[in-house]
Write a structure and sequence with these properties.
Layout: E1 3-10, H1 12-16, H2 20-30, E2 33-40, H3 44-50, H4 60-68, E3 72-80, H5 82-90, H6 103-107, E4 116-118, H7 122-132
Amino acid sequence: MKMESTLVLLKPDAVRRKLCGEILSRFERKGFTLTALKLLRLTPAMAASHYQEHSGKPFYPALIDFITASPVVAMVLTGPDAIKLVRAMMGPTNPVAAPPGTIRGDYATVMSENIIHGSDSPASAQREIAIYFSEQELI
């Protein structure tokens, strides 16, 4: 197993519903190291950079509106196979398909507000972490 870091965003619905501590504690109990954490409100430019692969898709404007509407919690988690394990803990994007015991299975109710984002590859993790954190902010 290789050590890697991944970006996790607790989306506005998680912040609004006061689920951040519960979700973060799941990752800590799994053994991940929290190497950066902040509460922030995304600018439209940050959101566009983060979701660049969805630009031009029909749901893109609503996605940008949602993610910039209120604060998010951005964090970097580090551990063995962090990207794959975090995504498994999150569950499928569609909460209807997310099994109980996953974050989305336990907390998300609709696809457009699905509680959490996690990087899907090492390249995405590197690109996304740089959107939210400077080198000096990473432990």
